[in-house]
Amino acid sequence: MGRRVCRAVTYGATQCPGHPYGGAVATAFVKTLRDLLSDGAVIDDPPVVAEHAFDASRTTAPVAAVLVRPRSTREVSAVLRAANDAGVPVVPQGARSGLVGAAAAIDGAVLLDLGALDRIVRIDPVDRIAVVQPGVVVADLQRAAAAVGLFYPPDPASAEWASIGGTIATNAGGMRCVKYGVTRDAVRSLEAVLADGEIVRTRAETVKGVAGLDLTSLFVGSEGTLGVITEATLALRPAPGPSRGVSAIFRDAASAFAAANVIASGSRLPSTLEFLDEVALRGIRLVRPELGIPDSAQAWLLAVTDEVIGSAEDLDGFEAAFLAHGAQAATRADDPEQLDHLFAARRALSPALVAVRGGATHGDLAVPRSQLPVLADAVVELRLRLGVEISLAGHVGDGNLHPTVVFDPGDADETARAREAEHELLVLAQRLGGTVAGEHGIGSVKLHAVDGEVPPRIRELQRAVKSVFDPRGILNPGRKL
Ligand SMILES: Cc1cc2nc3c(=O)[nH]c(=O)nc-3n(C[C@H](O)[C@H](O)[C@H](O)COP(=O)(O)OP(=O)(O)OC[C@H]3O[C@@H](n4cnc5c(N)ncnc54)[C@H](O)[C@@H]3O)c2cc1C
């Protein structure tokens, strides 16, 4: 078979330069990889490769050529050098829990599964750092840090399976960002393999360090387009106190937003501040009736503190803010077990939204916190105009909500209106000075919306940076930028 046009791979405005990865070339390339890597590291059995073609977005994936599971940085380097020489695209993969298609297959690509690089190399309590390989599961690092009295703050809801490499490459968030920031804030230094196979380290492991440009930050959130992360030095913190919290229900969303704003703007930050709206609560009543959420509840907030000193005062403050803004009822959890019960409603969110009408889109917007009430009003207008139901739940403490359009997938007209609403929500976030991608990334799913947010000159600079790192455009082409 001759050369095929790289139909799935567009890089920027231009088609990527005809990657020669069809038929015979792919077979020869797989043999090259087998010669370079340890036994069993190269898998071209089509059903196994196909199984690895998706991430959690389940976007339709083309057919990858081969799945590779390197066992060392050197092997990652060998794969990239060979792929670069052959012009074969490479898709780095962590746990494939991503929600935007960033780790899904590209036609004829190498799926580079980093899962076997899963060692916690060291945890250093003096320098308060962890040095880890990319395949380490986030929750495993959290537990290893806790075992020596330390704390790794990044905590996406997928922590039990998402990888350190994937969470760095997406700059993952989660529920603790209101106090501890996003994954970027925990990344000190990275070892990465560049497209041509060269192994580099971005900076020293010191807290302070301003030599040269900050390429560590550039790798964070780059979705595998600039290099493959093979080791990360991560900043740890002293262990926090036990988590305690207060939840409350409100008669309207505006009162809940006002209460949340008072708490998030206060001098003592909660470690978590979450919001559920009326649509979400309706779904939760369906899937978790035993939680007893009353029909009158139109909004719900949960504020958590993990302070070692003063946590009782924090709880008093949260409760006072809730009641001052008309909360119907506030429930206090004085220890982590009780708090777990308060979290139950928030944890039920995804199945609850599906339960409302059978189908649910996936949203991840961020706006300046001051714009949340404006966003909420605009969503009401959108609901009425398009005749769809939209839930607006999420991380109210940092302005990152997950607006979800719920719809009947069996109704073509309603499904079309849901998709239109999904698109309008992206435009709305941008109009309010926000972003279409709070924490889940751009991948391929949201690529169409980037022009609405990133000015043309900045887009141009970003593509120029990409071409310096990856002149042949082999690293996750068609994603992120
Ligand atoms: C139920 C559920 C809950 C979730 N909750 C949250 C949440 O609360 N907050 C949040 O932010 N996200 C959340 N996510 C999304 C997802 O878990 C995150 O995006 C996560 O960071 C992806 O990690 P991963 O290891 O699965 O990476 P993958 O999905 O495998 O890859 C994601 C991106 O990283 C790149 N990549 C992976 N490893 C490397 C590497 N070593 N070097 C270079 N690039 C690499 C891939 O190419 C891809 O671009 C959730 C997902 C699910 C399914």
TrEMBL record:
Q: Where is the FAD-binding PCMH-type domain?
A: 60-239
| InterPro entries cross-referenced by the UniProt entry | FAD-bd_oxidored_4_C, FAD-bd_PCMH, FAD-bd_PCMH-like_sf, FAD-bd_PCMH_sub2, FAD-linked_Oxase-like_C, FAD-linked_OxidoTrans_Type4, Oxid_FAD_bind_N, Vanillyl_alc_oxidase_C-sub2
Protein name (database record): FAD-binding protein
Q: Which cofactor does it need?
A: FAD
What is the phylogenetic placement of the source species in the record? Bacteria, Bacillati, Actinomycetota, Actinomycetes, Micrococcales
- Spell out the molecular function terms from Gene Ontology: FAD binding; oxidoreductase activity
Which keywords accompany this UniProt record?
FAD, Flavoprotein, Oxidoreductase
Q: Which Pfam families match?
A: FAD-oxidase_C (PF02913), FAD_binding_4 (PF01565)
The family this protein is said to belong to: Belongs to the FAD-binding oxidoreductase/transferase type 4 family.
Domain of life here? Answer: Bacteria
